[in-house]
Each structure stands twice: as C-alpha cells, then as structure tokens.
Structure prediction request, 354 residues.
Amino acid sequence: MKLKILGINNYIVLEGTLILNVLKKLTEKAREYPFLIVVNKKKKLLGTITDGDIRRSLIAGKSLKGKVDDFMQKTPIKAYDNNSDNFETLLSRIDTYFPFLPVLNKNDNLVKIVINDVDEKIPLNVLIMAGGYGKRLGDKTKNKPKPLVNVRGKPLLEHIFKNIEKIKVQNIFISVHHLKEQIHDFLTKTKRKNKVKVLTERRPLGTAGSLKLLPNIKKSNILVVNGDILTTLDFEALINFHSKNNSDATIAVANHLVEIPYGVIRHDIKGNFLNLEEKPNINNYVSAGIYCLSNKILKLLDVREYIDMPELLNRGKKKGMNIMIFPIHENWTDIGRPKDLIEARKNKYPINSK
Prediction:
C-alpha cells in the first residue's frame, strides 16, 4: 500500500446539494479520484458519495431530482490526524473499489483525505461490435457500414474511439463483417491500424458471437460497445462499478419513457373497476448496448456459434453468475432507426465524455 495525502478543496460538497450538481463535480473536479466528501459549512463530516453510490440509488428507485443527503453513505470509516499510524489499517477495511479515508482534526472538521495510490485494477480489453448490416437505416447503410455513418461531421465509430481512448486499456478489438473493407480503410486513415486488432466474422455471429474470436485473454475484464451508439458515459465509472460488485457481467441500461395518451383502467381478475389513471408514463430500463464482462462468461460460448447478447446473459444467469445493471444518467442515443439518426444530427447536447 502506498499512501497519498489529498487536499480537500476538490473533493468536498455541501449538504443539500442537488445530485445533478454532485454528478457534475464528480465529472469535472474528481475525475482522477472518483469520490466526494459531504460536509456542512463548518466542514464537519456528514458522509461520502461515489458514482457507484448514485447509480445504486437509482436502481433502488431514487430520482436525479434529489439531494446528496439521500444518496450518500452516512457512516463512513474515518480517521483523526493525530493518529496517522492507523491510516493503512483503516484504508484496508474500506469496502469500495477505490478506498479513500476522510481525516478529521480534534474538532471533527475535515482536514485531508488519504488514499492508496497503487493501481491494482484488473486489466481491461475493449471490443467494438461493428459487423452488423444496419438494415433498419435503409439506404443509409446499403453501401456503408452503420458505424461509419456521419453524425455532426464524424463517423459514429470516431465518436466511440474518442471515448475509449480516454481510459487505460490493454487492447482494442473491433469485429467486422458487412462492408468490412471500409472499416479497415477508416482505421488506416485515422492512424489506428496498428493500434486496433480486427476480428473478422466470416459469417454473422450475432451480437455476442464475436466474443469467441477474441484471443485467449487471461484475467481481464472486457468492455463491449456496440458500434451504433452515442453517449457521454464515462466508461471508467462502468468498469469501476463492475469490479466493485464482483460482477461476471454488468449491463449499462438507459431509462426509456413511454407516454400512454389515454386514461388507463385498472381492474381485478373478475373485471371489477379499481381506478383510472389519466395518461400515465411508463418507465423501463433498456439495454444501452454497452457491457462489461469478466472472461469467465466467455466460457459459456461455443466455438463460432451464432448468439445474441440477451441469450448469453440469460445463459449466465441460469448458471448462477453475478449479473448487474448500471443505470446511465448521461446522454445516450442508439442509432437504430432513421428518425434516431435525424435526432442525433439535430441535437446540441454533448456526445463525448469529458
């Protein structure tokens, strides 16, 4: 363990702060060390919060309209600056992927933060799925693979690479099939030919089958990204969440809202009226086309079988594997239909993580 002392200014947030502002500070000020300490105006310690705390709260049904007080850990392990001998012991007891220790003075005011500055992360490999036909886009993909369709002056694939290249990875792989020569040309033109390893599907293998084309990767996590999405998601947050929860697979999920334009009748099995709800909204989580997988789940694949990701995940669940969801609160768009492409080109929100 290698102890490092951090100043508090970039890592504190006041009680009562809106959770959306907390997320902004986590992204902008605490990018390297992803946590914040919750204090009052006198810098008294009230709690701690991480990106994972927020996403677990969203899974539990909390709203992004809430305040940090409803999301934070209220009884964190802490230390006092007159007892530095036990910093290492206390850090070793903290059950987070990135342990951090608030240090207080005798008046219980936060004065510094201690972390373990040794990188113990599991190696990461990335697979971009770029072999599909993209038939739903019609003529747009007749002579061009969907990952090369332009959005705001750049191919979808360029936006994806820009996000991936912000994190530390061992290898980047890309699976190709439909009009694969154009993907090769793109990699050459963008000077990525020697940095990206191409996996060729000689026949379509489904949305998960090309995982079997990966070389034998020993202890490693695999970030899988569909080649037709735009997002500001910080991939590092997904990877940390996956590791913290000891997941075999973590599915990034986006909230999908369906507005019912009519009054909905509730009734029992005998047809008795219970109530009428006027034009309700129905919220569901949908797969965002981004996954973090352990190499353990790859053992469930047969050689070169056609298999889609839902079947692989269901297969893992039946085997008792630990499969988690990771709610996306960032911008996310799936370019599946022509109207999705039109909207993505019109929208002004950011489409890359910071």
Observations:
- The radius of gyration is 23 Å.
- The mean pLDDT is 91.
- Residues 167 and 307 are 28 Å apart (CA to CA).
